[in-house]
Amino acid sequence: MEEADLLCDSLFRWMKKRKECADKLLELAQELENVRQGSNIAQVVGNATSVAAIISGAALATFFTGGLALPLLVAAARGVGTAVSVTSPLAEAGISRSTFKKAIELIKEDEEVGRRIQKQLQDLKDRCGGTQLGDHADELEYEVTSQLMCALARRDNTHVPLDFLRAFNRATFYRHMTPGGVAPANASRFIGQPLNLVSFTAVIMSIQMLSAKEMGKNIGQIGIKAAAKAGSRALGMIGLGICLYDLFDKSAELVKGKRFTEASKILRDSAREILEGQKKLKEQLEAMQKINQKLLTMKNLIKNLRGYSLSLNEVGQKIIDYIMETCTDNKVVSWLQELAHQIEFVNLLTFVKTILSEEEEEEVFKKTLNHIVFVAHGRIIDQFMPAGVLVPTPNITDTILYSPWNCLIHSSAAFGIAQGLIKVTNRQFYDRKGVYCEPNPLPGHWNSMRGSLHNIPVILLSPVTPEEGAWTLFLDLCENRGMEIENRIIIPYFSPKNLVNAFGEIPLFVFIFVTSFILMIFGKTATVHLAACLGRAGSPPRPDEWRTQYAFTSDGTVMTMNMDDRNMNSLLFRALRSLFDRNHD
């Protein structure tokens, strides 16, 4: 987007000006030190006007304060109510009228630069839908941030797709924008955490930190001259601007009183503030560039994953190192401490990526991907975690569980979950003897992890192995793209034929993390559904916790649904029947 490119170019030029400005102030500070040793005061103060040639802070104060500072600068330039006038101590100290006039001309030129940058930012906001979004500031900042990051990538000749950056920003800095999302400070960050960064929005926020409304109040209370000084001090605090007139005013007073050391200190302090502001912006821009590079590197690593292994190769190690350095989910990090789990993680990453698509350009990614259904053997254990762990980023809009806790599922229920056909009104429950035994109470909704405020049992999923009849059927379905149904993809968890040990029993939260990671890489979102038994399989019963979170059933209870006249002989149903009905027909 041209607007973002122009703004990035202006910010980089501004950084260069900051350095030049600071160098000049340090030079002037040294001149003042020389005055103390007998130099000509008029010559030194006259040299101060050359700072105007490179200082943009005075003009950019207009930009930083939303345009309010402009009248202050104009008033100062006209000699109205300020110490910087033709009869000021500076002029009396030796500045000629022609030199002073030249300084004012340079300030006006800088004002043009400030207005141009301000217009570029506004143009970018308008292009990003600022007029339509109105009060939805987060949406606007999110899009502006993504556009600026993309402009930085283009500046470095790095191809990072805009949708990819949008997905990353939603998954990190703007998680709070999604329903049930968390505050930005608590958002999990795939990359932001190790870099100790804030988003590019911080750059925008810092240059607009002084609100016109608050500055207006100050002007009304303390007058133009004092407000100008207050404004410069505030700008100095954020390190992004120094009011030139304020600086001249104070320096002139000190020089007039022959307090050369203090005047020199003011100039040195101002130079330090300018350098700090320049450094801060430089670090933020460079950090965004580093994020672009890391994201592109990781995307290429994952896209190039091929095959499964019983050891950790170089690519796998890089991915694990990246996850361990950046992931803020303690459960995932803790699980990855073991080498065997690291190998399983990389294999699972390869497996899910392969099922979703070999390449992001393939047809499944061209469609709107709304739902992912995991099918596997499942059980719950006597460990609990927050339900929100199963909705780690906005790329996972929700994770839906269907059966109550400690409940098995029948092939018909699994088929309904996979196809998106099951309804809360047509689910049925039977015990081992075939007696109807509906849980009491039984919620009238599915178990949404995004909507839950309670802890849930840890769910473990294990793969379908080659010795099971369902394995061949699932393999055939996957090879013939038979697991794609309209806007949903069914992912059966099954072991590769020649590497059965490549997959083991893996927590559902790892499946969800892997899925969210891949969705972020490819700039997609989806709701995850689970078709698996949730029996306790020998773990201690926890009926109170189960009931508090959702509902539970007695041991051996099976959830099913009425299939009506649907196709019960399809290959998918045969596979599900072989998987789920072998132990409780």
Please explain how this structure is put together.
54% of the residues lie in helices and 10% in strands. A hairpin with a 2-residue loop joins strand 8 (484-485) and strand 9. It has two domains: 2-132 and 208-290, no CATH class; 369-580, no CATH class. With 585 residues, it is an alpha/beta fold.
Secondary structure topology:
Layout: H1 2-36, H2 41-48, H3 57-64, H4 69-77, H5 89-93, H6 97-127, H7 130-133, H8 137-155, H9 162-171, H10 192-195, H11 201-207, H12 212-238, H13 244-256, H14 260-303, H15 314-326, H16 330-335, H17 339-356, H18 363-366, E1 371-375, E2 377-386, E3 396-401, E4 408-409, H19 411-419, E5 427-430, E6 447-448, E7 455-462, H20 469-479, E8 484-485, E9 488-492, E10 506-507, H21 508-521, E11 526-531, H22 543-549, E12 558-561, H23 571-580
Parallel strand pairs: 1-9, 1-11, 3-11, 4-12
Antiparallel strand pairs: 2-7, 3-6, 5-12, 7-10, 8-9
